[in-house]
Amino acid sequence: MPAPEPSPAPQEVTEDEEVETIVAQADKLKGLTVLGKIELPTAGGPKTAGGGKKGFKNDGGGDRNRGNNPQQPNRDANVNRDNANRDSANKKKRKRIIVQNAAPDTNDRPVVVRGDRKDFSQPAPGNRPNFNKGGGGNRPNISAGAPKQDVTDKQIQEQIKATLARLSGGKGNQANRAKYRREKRSAIADADEQRRAQEQSESKTLKLTEFISANDLASLMNVSVNDVIKVCLGLGMFVSINQRLDAEAITIIADEFGYDVEFLSAEDEDIEIEEEDSEEDLVERAPIVTIMGHVDHGKTSLLDFIRNSKVTAGEAGGITQHIGAYDVLTDTGKRITFLDTPGHEAFTAMRARGAKITDVVIIVVAADDDVMPQTKEALNHAQAASVPIVIAINKVDKPSANPDRIREQLAAINILVEEWGGKYQCQEISAKTGQGIPDLLEKVLLESELLELKANPDRRATGSVIEASLDKGRGYVATIMVQTGTLHVGDVMLAGSHYGRVKAMTDHRGKKMKTAGPSTPVQVLGLDGAPQAGDKFVVYETEREAREIASSRSQLQREQSMRTKKHITLDEIGRRLAIGSFKELNVIVKGDVDGSVEALSDSLLKLSTNEVQVNILSKGVGQISESDVLLASASDAIIIGFQVRPSANARRLAEQEQIDIRLYSIIYNAINEVKDAMEGMLAPTLQEVIIANVEVREVFRITKVGTIAGCMVTDGTINRNSRIRVVRDGIVVHSGDILALKRFKDDVSEVRTGYECGISIKNFNDLEIGDIIEAYEEKEVKRTL
């Protein structure tokens, strides 16, 4: 093989080219066979850019051409430079999707490049785009028909997003990454809010609490507040922008704009949506059993026997005054939580609450009595709450017991027991001797096993308030039932419109507790007020969050109480003035527990009539204070204390102000006495009583005196001061008074049956023989409610 000749024109080569020329002169040129591999002519056949003249298809062709071409070293050096430039360009453009033409190289060989590449209908897909630099028109045809160059807009957008994500997250700057996460969360929240707004506008149903302002209502309906005010003016209501509207006004305004209204309570709006507990976190919990029934049918005695302690002895009059919660361990080792509800008719709301938080209901019916109204009401509460019912027929040890009659009466109200082919379990028991009580508990446990009662103890506690009271020395004490989660001492708890940190917990025996799991009744200290019985309680992480929700709820309750207070309209005043005087009985109610105060207040309000209105000015738990006496003095009210006593200062102030304080221990005694007081305020009715019938037998007309009737008293005794009616042929022709009553010539005060008398009537002379003079009196008759 002949040796390659040196370059004939070294003066035209730059210093960089001389360095590369020296490299090309070495024998290592045989190792540059990679030039053929770079072209990768695989799918497009053996075509070359120059019509096959270069011969870069195989490894051996380069040596033959190099021997026949005197300018081969310089050409190879140019090719090497092209390769280097192409590699560096490709490195820079590796991530790009749309490739642009590189700048033309002044050192390219113009003889080799041809512009006829643009005429190829099917170019070789393996040719590199930078191989023919400066060739105009050949770049667009390279990507035509190549599958790997088909890039959709979706892929482009995805790659742009990925690149932006890498740029924002790859700098190592924690603040930038946090900012990106915040922006992403904000974008998701905005999208979610837009979606909810769209759903709200499509559904045309407003879910809101009562007493929202006109401005807020306009925002919910997506209209101007001026439009809302115009509608109110058209309806005769004068409202301002921030004035809060009641339920009736909200419904009317929303209806004008084509919206339906669904009212939510403050608790429904504030309580967060609970997450579903996973199955592996749930553990079995004890059933919550409520004992219901009529007064004196043996509910508390049954619970007394189960607990092996006498709780009935402490109840005034043998009546359970407020709800009790007890934790009982049965002989079989199973734990049952019992709720004891009152049976008196005044405690309807307490029975309804007991049915809502319970799992199984025991209805106690006395075998020597009948199915009473409160028994039917308790059955209705349990059925409305979809709670399993177990019938306990008590007092079967009495000689007069007739359990079959009870079953028959239950069947009459669609409560068919299992013995008669029904679905309700029934057990005959005796709370006095203990007969049948173990079997009753087994049936209760059987019902609870069918329910598969489970709860997650490893979460924040939620549950219901059973009772609340004010204990002197300890503050507000709330009896609560933990339904899910575990309550710890130190937790921040929100119950109704009151909140606080749990300072201490005790069970029903007074034993201190650190934690309370599901289905555990406990007494809690630490709330800033007495929540209402039946309120839901929730544990929050921070005290600030609980305080904000509590303040908003209390504000809503204040506005609601002010607006729902019954105001007497002008028309009502006119109507009552027309029928007579109108009386009001103002009452302040204080009690030991919230449930009893609520029951007593509701019972007193039901006593109101058209003439006597009962107004509950204030109600609360705790002893009667000086502020209560001052309020009663300012509003002429009486104070009713239920299981509480006034303080020494309040008693002294009440004596000075002459305020009537009534103290009771049995609820129906308080109701009956208030009823008697209202009856005393009623205006008595006037009732006519006929005392005499006198027949006119002769008529004497005397000048300057008038007409005098000679009469015979046929019935009763006629008095000088009696009012009379003149009846002729069964028709009353005159009503008036007696001017003179004489017997012979003497004036007398009365004439009895069988005697004659002379009667002259004031301002009436048209008497005829045969008329009947009817004497009567008007007596006041005391009215009853």
Automatic annotation (TrEMBL):
Residues 67-82 have a biased composition (Low complexity). Transmembrane segments: none annotated. Keywords: Cytoplasm, GTP-binding, Initiation factor, Nucleotide-binding, Protein biosynthesis. Residues 284-454 form the Tr-type G domain. Residues 56-66, 192-202 have a biased composition (Basic and acidic residues). Residues 30-202 are annotated as: Disordered. One of its GO terms (cellular component) is cytoplasm. InterPro entries: EF-G-like_DII (IPR053905), EFTu-like_2 (IPR004161), IF2_II (IPR044145), IF2_N (IPR006847), P-loop_NTPase (IPR027417), Ribosomal_eS28_CS (IPR028626), Small_GTP-bd (IPR005225), T_Tr_GTP-bd_dom (IPR000795). Its main location: cytoplasm. It comes from the Bacteria. GTP binds at residues 293-300, 340-344, 394-397. Pfam families: EF-G_D2 (PF22042), GTP_EFTU (PF00009), GTP_EFTU_D2 (PF03144), IF-2 (PF11987), IF2_N (PF04760). It is found in: Cytoplasm. Gene3D superfamilies: P-loop containing nucleotide triphosphate hydrolases, Translation factors, Translation initiation factor IF- 2, domain 3. GO terms for molecular function: GTP binding; GTPase activity; translation initiation factor activity. One of the essential components for the initiation of protein synthesis. Protects formylmethionyl-tRNA from spontaneous hydrolysis and promotes its binding to the 30S ribosomal subunits. Also involved in the hydrolysis of GTP during the formation of the 70S ribosomal complex. Belongs to the TRAFAC class translation factor GTPase superfamily. Classic translation factor GTPase family. IF-2 subfamily. This is Translation initiation factor IF-2. It comes from Adhaeribacter aerolatus.
